[in-house]
Description:
Distance between the termini: 64 Å
Number of strands: 0
Shape: elongated
Helix content: over 70%
Strand content: under 5%
Number of helices: 10
Radius of gyration: 21 Å
Largest sheet: none
Low-confidence stretches: none
Order of helices and strands: HHHHHHHHHH
Amino acid sequence: MQTPKEHTRKEILEAARREFLTEGFENSSMRVIAKKAGVSTSNIYNYFENKEHLLTEIVDPILKGMEQGFAYISKPDYVETRFQDSYEGWKKRFNIALDYVDQNREAFTLLLLKSQGSALENFIETVISRMTILNMEQMQNFKDAHPNYKGRISEFVIRNLVSFFLSIFIQMVRLNISKEDMLLDEDSFLKFLHHGFKGSIASDLA
């Protein structure tokens, strides 16, 4: 059973979520959020330090989920596993990501479209940079494990490949494309990603 404080906290978060989605972070005010939550403006600060704290709390599950994703691609054999994996394996992982974005569409909308003026306004660039670094490290691990691999590990190339992959889901959110419509096009994306990645690696293995 919820305590009065827990109930009030949830009401404030829900009011903030609606306000951020409608007005964006920058144009939202604590006064309006408090009014929508049915509390005084002064009382809202008993639960949250500021507007930034509210946004962070709302999207915290997504931020934690992204950290799990970073941990997954940090595995030492990540590139090796992807190279050996079948098309169906790639499809399974793609659909996990697709489901995750679809199930958390509002939170991703906040992060991608409504977070201007907050510390999270560069969220996607931060993700691209972290994924680029991790993939650079994984490619180096692969090269160390395969002395006959002649491929060049280029940050520019890897950053653009990471950007392309993420852009699939960014555009899904920005254009409000349904999961059903995404599934109609997923084979086109996956054929390019799967065969392109494997072909690139294979062509540089002496």
